[in-house]
Design brief:
This protein has 215 residues and is α/β, with parallel strands linked by helices. It contains seven helices and nine strands. The structure holds 5-O-phosphono-beta-D-ribofuranosylamine (GRF).
Length: 215
């Protein structure tokens, strides 16, 4: 499966996906790292790892749809089969989302459907909830909406601040995202009208994460 990863900044999740595709996930290969931001620091990791990179600055397009059209063109030129959004800070138009229906996933640093959107950790701390985590989900037109593929939770301790919580959750994101991508590239899950149907192997692999984390 030829994968494109969309980033806007640091790209630490992208790094984990690339590493996993080079080591334990032989059914997927990262063919393109795309960014809407030429300054995204993750781009140099991709280049240094011999991965094609592409930047299209969204600010030169008046309409969201025009940027999305160029992105779509770039993905097709590279024969991409599947997209992973990894800190990609753009809302995608409905047409784009529908063109990549069930072929695009995203990672979000909360236990969706709670805390969609930005400033997640700040809002989690303010809410005084004692549980947070991360979610990988299929992309749908609504922001941070779509069928959930996998989640990992963590306790929010009384002394956690935004920074501590973001570090804790990011570590979990780095574990969860490669496993979820592999579920798709190994064909271990199916989607039936937005319901995820997990094979036995898929369930085992998701369970194994919790075992690894001692949960
Ligand atoms: C991650 O927390 C991800 O969940 C969110 O944006 C952050 C991106 O981090 N969507 P990185 O660029 O992968 O390091």
């Amino acid at each position: 499966m030829k994968v494109a990863i969309l980033i806007s900044g640091r790209g630490s999740n992208m790094e984990r996906l690339v590493e996993s595709c080079k080591t334990n996930n032989k059914s997927a290969s990262v063919e393109l790292v795309f960014s809407n931001n030429a300054e995204a620091s993750g781009l140099s990791f991709a280049k240094n790892n011999g991965i094609e990179t592409s930047v299209i600055d969204h600010r030169i397009y008046e309409k969201r749809e025009d940027f999305d059209h160029e992105l779509d063109k770039k993905l097709r030129e590279n024969n991409i089969d599947f997209i992973c959004n990894a800190g990609f800070m753009r809302i995608l138009s409905e047409d784009f989302v529908n063109n990549w229906f069930n072929k695009q996933i995203n990672i979000h640093p909360s236990l969706l459907p709670d805390f969609k959107g930005l400033d997640v950790h700040k809002r989690v701390i303010e809410s005084k909830t004692n549980i947070s985590g991360c979610t990988v989900h299929l992309v749908r037109a609504g922001v941070d909406e779509g069928p959930i593929i996998g989640q990992i939770s963590t306790k929010v301790e009384t002394n956690d601040n935004e920074e501590i919580l973001s570090i804790k959750v990011l570590k979990l994101e780095h574990i969860l995202y490669p496993v979820c991508l592999k579920l798709f590239s190994d064909n271990l899950i199916q989607i039936n009208e937005d319901k995820i149907i997990y094979s036995k192997e898929a369930i085992d692999q998701l369970d194994e994460i919790n075992a690894r984390l001692g949960k």
